[in-house]
Design a protein that fits this description.
By secondary structure, the chain is α/β, with parallel strands linked by helices. Helices cover 30% and strands 23% of the residues. The chain is built from eleven helices and 16 strands. The strands form two sheets. Strands 1, 9, 10, 11, 12, 13, 14, 15 and 16 form a nine-stranded mixed sheet that branches. A seven-stranded parallel sheet has the order 2-3-4-5-6-7-8. Helix 4 packs parallel to helix 5 (116-126), helix 5 crosses helix 6 (139-152) and helix 7 packs across helix 8. It starts with 14 loop residues before the first helix and ends in a 10-residue tail after the last strand. The model is unreliable at 1-5 (pLDDT under 50).
Length: 387
């Protein structure tokens, strides 16, 4: 892989190159046994993506991958085996699933509120060998976490949530950080781990815009962290997502936090040519009806395929389909040319947005060498796991 190309040298990556349909790697011998719609996962491709993540970061200790994409303990275990010891989670259920696997740390990257505050402290009590931490941007939450940690007799870590321009959560000024730090210093059962900086807006930029935009983040972030370190000592910087991964990885102080890279998808694969990962999750669907010679209805409705992007999938190996309808159980496509597919015809598809698509499935079918090897539960798609 070559990550040294400058943004001006990087055109958008062709979708057909991402699909690599000519190799037929996505096909499954026992597909007739799989009820559709279903999600297939290819562990050998996941393993290769883990290897590429580590290669880009140069050290597995510099990775804090997000589990929100796969929500699956088997994928966490694969990363642990590769030397990755710390993870981020979007929900308490994801944090619970990850803690069960025995990492060094799990960070709840969504600020805990309501019952989740106590739930997080209970998780730390249940798994004392795991550092349980949370991302925080409000003094009130600092106080609530401190009280919950004291009640459960545990010590929770916190990361100050810094907003690099996304405008979703976090603080931006030293005065705001200082308010958080002063609140923390009144709590005996909390300790500062570092700062958390998520730049989700980078996925909407062109390759030519991303590198200077990441540089602007560091120009703002560096003096802010320096002031925090002068008051609190050394702090760690957990930064970025998948689109900005290659740029943050160039800075040795950065702990990089990609997530989609485990399964990858067509949206990032097409728009973020700076990184080169393999599609490792594929949908399998069947034809339900043939309303016309060039119209196909699949059993891949919004309950199995995320509907948040205008373009939602590509079929293997057919490109150029047009979505006519997408309802709860049906997807109606206009084909680029008439086809002879009949009801029951098996069709493979790659989604444009994998993370929320995974969350629509209770389990994934595990495929190696063209053969089904079993099924993995998507454990953390639930909002609550039982401790």
């Amino acid at each position: 892989m070559n990550f040294s190309a400058t943004p001006s040298e990087l055109p958008l990556r062709p979708v057909e190159e991402l699909l690599d349909a000519s190799s037929r790697w996505y096909e499954v011998a026992q597909v007739h046994e799989i009820p559709t719609p279903a999600l297939l996962v290819f562990p050998q491709r996941v393993q290769e993506n883990i290897r590429r993540m580590i290669q880009m970061a140069q050290d597995p200790k510099r990775l804090v991958p997000h589990v929100k994409t796969h929500k699956c303990s088997q994928v966490v275990q694969m990363q642990l085996a590769a030397g990755i010891r710390r993870f981020k989670a979007a929900t308490v259920a994801e944090a619970e699933m990850t803690a069960r696997c025995g990492p060094d740390e799990v960070i709840l990257a969504t600020q805990p509120v309501g019952p989740h505050v106590l739930r997080l402290a209970q998780l730390a009590q249940r798994y004392p060998q795991v550092q349980v931490s949370a991302v925080v941007d409000h003094p009130q939450v600092v106080e609530q976490l401190g009280q919950a940690a004291a009640k459960q007799e545990v010590r929770l870590g916190v990361y100050w949530d810094l907003d690099p321009g996304l405008g979703r959560t976090g603080v931006r000024t030293w005065q705001q950080v200082l308010q958080l730090q002063e609140a923390l210093e009144r709590q005996k059962c909390l300790h500062l781990r570092g700062v958390h900086v998520y730049d989700g807006q980078m996925g909407k930029l062109s390759p030519q815009q991303r590198e200077p935009a990441v540089e602007q983040i560091w120009q703002w972030l560096t003096p802010l962290v320096a002031r925090l370190q002068a008051r609190a000592g050394k702090v760690e910087i957990v930064v970025g997502g998948s689109p900005s991964f290659p740029y943050h990885a160039r800075r040795e102080q950065a702990l990089c936090s990609p997530g989609t890279t485990l399964y990858w998808d067509l949206n990032y694969g097409h728009r973020v040519p700076e990184v080169d990962f393999l599609l490792a999750a594929v949908l399998v669907t069947r034809v339900l009806s043939r309303p016309g010679p060039d119209v196909v209805t699949l059993d891949l409705g919004t309950k199995a395929l995320c509907p948040d992007l205008p373009r939602r999938l590509e079929l293997f190996p057919t490109l150029g389909t047009e979505m006519l309808l997408h309802n709860e159980e049906h997807l109606v496509l206009h084909m680029p040319q008439p086809c002879d597919w009949e009801p029951g015809q098996v069709v493979y598809a790659a989604p444009y947005h994998i993370c929320p698509t995974v969350a629509l499935h209770d389990e994934v079918w595990v495929v190696e060498g063209g053969q089904v090897q079993g099924r993995w539960p998507v454990e953390a798609r639930r909002r609550r796991l039982e401790l």
